[in-house]
UniProtKB/TrEMBL annotation:
The lineage of its organism: Archaea, Methanobacteriati, Methanobacteriota, Stenosarchaea group, Halobacteria. Coiled coil: none annotated. This is Putative ABC transporter ATP-binding protein. Keywords: ATP-binding, Cell membrane, Membrane, Nucleotide-binding, Translocase, Transport. InterPro entries: AAA+_ATPase, ABC_transporter-like_ATP-bd, ABC_transporter-like_CS, ABC_transpr_CbiO/EcfA_su, ECF_ABC_transporter_ATP-bd, P-loop_NTPase. Residues 277-286 have a biased composition (Polar residues). The keyword Disulfide bond does not apply. It comes from the Archaea. Signal peptide: none annotated.
Length: 286
């Protein structure tokens, strides 16, 4: 499929000839530098954009054939900045907005909101002002609003941007739990290679609007030539020391990660530092 933005200087192609399938239950990372087309592509998954050429389908049906409410219930989208998503004066009102628009009311609506807030560990804060929260908490409110609609797929645009190391880990562990325990399919647009290594078994690399590679994350991080070609930097060995020692979850096995980082000797003296040294590609997503 292809998509171009209209500008004063004429159309600018943002997605060019992409052919991609995301399978049910996957966690897929879309990576690439600023302007590569990651976010623009992701916005086609739930109808925020419509292809100029070709088509995007969900469960075999073209996305434009769904009503916006219908596709919104199936494919949720969490924006990079939660303040672009949150508008209500209380947490309860914010989380209830989506399911109320889809016709839920009464005890079923209350149950949906309560379950979503419990899932993101914000239960008991129904009457709180979400704009008084930290960014990490606002990210959770935004996610709860999506979860309350009970989607099959959630698309995250730069889910760790602006979060400190602890908030990043907490939020991504929550996303991983949703995938593992609820079977939610996850697509995440990200520059954070540490997040990719820990949480995404599959990585799709984009450049100039096109998919230039689509492969298991373990293969990407083990291929120095490919990393150099795409200008991607794997996490620093110190940041991955715990993963290699088996103390934290990762998309790579210990052996695969050690190989990708030059062998276990490169990590022998590394001190575990959690998330403090994760490497990223340059720039912000479009």
């Amino acid at each position: 499929m292809r998509f171009a933005y209209e500008t004063d200087r004429g159309p600018v192609t943002a997605v060019d000839g992409v052919d991609l399938t995301v399978r049910e239950g996957e966690v897929v990372a879309l990576v690439g530098h600023n302007g590569s087309g990651k976010t623009t592509l992701a916005k086609h998954f739930n109808g925020l954009h419509e292809a100029d050429e070709g088509s995007v389908s969900y469960r075999g049906r073209p996305v434009p054939e769904y009503g916006m409410g219908e596709i919104g219930r199936e494919v949720g989208y969490v924006f990079q900045n939660p303040d672009h998503q949150i508008f209500a004066e209380t947490v309860w009102e914010e989380v209830a907005f989506g399911p109320k628009n889809f016709g839920l009311e009464g005890p079923e609506l209350d149950r949906r909101v309560e379950r979503a807030l419990e899932t993101v560990e914000l239960d008991g804060l129904d009457d709180a002002d979400p704009f008084a929260f930290s960014k990490g908490q606002r990210q959770r409110v935004a996610l709860a609003g999506i979860l309350a609609t009970d989607p099959e797929v959630i698309v995250f645009d730069e889910p760790t941007t602006g979060l400190d190391a602890t908030q990043q880990r907490q939020f991504m562990d929550l996303v991983a739990k949703l995938n593992r325990e609820e079977g939610v399919t996850v697509v995440m647009v990200t520059h954070d290679m540490g997040t990719v290594a820990r949480y995404a078994p599959r990585t799709v690399v984009m450049r100039d609007g096109a998919v230039v590679d689509d492969l298991p994350t373990r293969e990407l991080f083990g291929d120095g030539a490919a990393l150099a070609e795409y200008d991607l930097v794997p996490p620093h060995p110190a940041a991955c020391a715990n993963a290699v020692r088996g103390d934290e979850p990762t998309a790579l096995t210990a052996e695969e990660l050690a190989t990708a980082l030059g062998g276990t000797d490169a990590l022998a003296d590394a001190e575990p530092v959690g998330d403090t040294a994760s490497a990223t590609t340059e720039g912000e997503g479009r």
